[in-house]
Amino acid sequence: MQTYPTGYAESHRMAEQIFRDILPRHGMAVREEQIALCHEVLDTLYNKEISLCEAGVGTGKTLAYLVGCILWQMHRPERMKLPIVISTSSVALQDAILTEYLPDLSAILLDEGIITAPITAVVRKGKERFVCDARLAERASLVQPSRERQTNSLRIAAHISGHGSYPGAFPV
After folding, report:
1. pTM of the complete model beyond 0.90
2. 3-class DSSP state of 115
3. Whether residue 128 has pLDDT greater than 80
4. What is the dihedral of CA 72, 75, 77, 80, to 10 degrees?
């Protein structure tokens, strides 16, 4: 069942072009598993499904899902163009996506005329960036009692996250 037929075939055609022609011109190898994964990502996005994909080390998973997401976003109806959220397993991968994958891919796609503006992204959170008892207590211990606004923010964060309060760190 294809929910958003607009752009479906064009996205798949462009994925083939990007992975078989464009990226190799820029020094990247053709990887059949990577291309198949990109097509799986596109099918999943267009059909509003959930997909669990597994691929070996060196397959090029990150580039496969980034290209799939970019093509899907390019061909969605304007009213459907909302931010795409990508969840990663590590802060290192988040940093690599922001500082390596997206800038490199953006430059290539701009150079080839596939996109007309650079790809942008922001980090919203990562598992190493989540609050936990130890991190919250550490941060709270660094705030001087005279910094009422920061103390209040940390107290609210502790309450919202269910971490309670830390004796000595927050006035009760």
Report:
1. no
2. coil
3. no
4. 20
